[in-house]
Amino acid sequence: MSALPRHLPQAFFARDALEVARDLIGTLLVRDDVVLRLTEVEAYREGDSANHCRAGKTARNAPMWGPPGHAYLYLCYGLHHLLNLVTDRDGVGAAVLVRSAEIVAGHDTVLARRRAVPGPAALRPALLTGPGKVAQALGLDLAWNDHPLYRRGGLELRARRPGDEPALATGPRVGIDYADPADRVAPWRIADRDSRWVSVRKALVG
DNA sequence: AGAGTGATGTTCT
DNA sequence: GAACATCACTCTA
Questions:
Q1: Residue A1 included in any domain
Q2: Which residues on neighbouring strands pair with residue A187, listed in sequence order?
């Protein structure tokens, strides 16, 4: 396998979640032999009624209030671990949820973790479109909370590959019917317009 | 392809 | 006790 692009520095994450979300499409999540290219994310910002931090700091959302560039994981519906990347400055509760990705390397490991039957038929978007699937493919659980992504080791985030300048599509975030109307329709879901490895493709524009 | 539904456990009212 | 940033499976067309 060819050399990976550079790590993104902590300063990359120390901005508004929406800005970070746009820049995350096309970047690489790396763990052991698995390399995933991000194709779909959602921003959860300060003052956002869909944000886990809307009611203040709790034991669950504590990592979101911490320094940028760390992981925030939580258990959704009692079954699925969801991976977020903490954004904005220390003391602000904001993050970007990773919704979908495509496989760059480590196909066999991903298939095994996803409990898919090995073979060409398994390598289709349904394998990795959805936040629970991405975390499962990376082998992540709550033990990865607070893990820094801007340093070598464990779970890492690296820059886009040379020449990868994805066109973006946007749409409303998924599964936040409880939020205020304005936040519910805000186009804070960002995707790679030209990738098939994106969930709920229908609601996207651009 | 689209709608319906059960699984499963933590968090918050 | 209800809600929940979901998934995989089953119908019906």
A1: no
A2: none
List the A64 CA – C13 C1' distance (angstroms). Answer: 45
Beta strands in chain A (DSSP E): 28-31, 34-44, 71-76, 80-86, 95-105, 155-158, 168-171, 189-192
Residue A5 lies in a domain: no
Question: Whole domain around residue A157: which residue ranges?
Answer: 10-197
State how beta strands A168-171 and A80-86 pair: unpaired
Q: Nearest nucleotide (C1') to the CA of residue A176?
A: C5
Total domains present in chain A: 1
**Residue A84: φ, ψ to 5°:** -120, 155
Nearest alpha carbon to residue A175 among A99, A63, A124: A99
The enclosing domain of A25 has a CATH number of 3.10.300.10
Using the structure, give the distance in angstroms from the CA atom of A77 to the C1' atom of C4, rounded to a whole number: 6
Is nucleic acid strand B under 7 Å from A175's C-beta?
Answer: no
Q: What is the pLDDT of residue A119?
A: 78
Q: What is the mean pLDDT of residues A188-196?
A: 96
Q: Which pLDDT belongs to residue A118?
A: 80
Q: In 3-state terms, what secondary structure has residue A30?
A: strand
In percent, how much of chain A has pLDDT > 70? Answer: 99
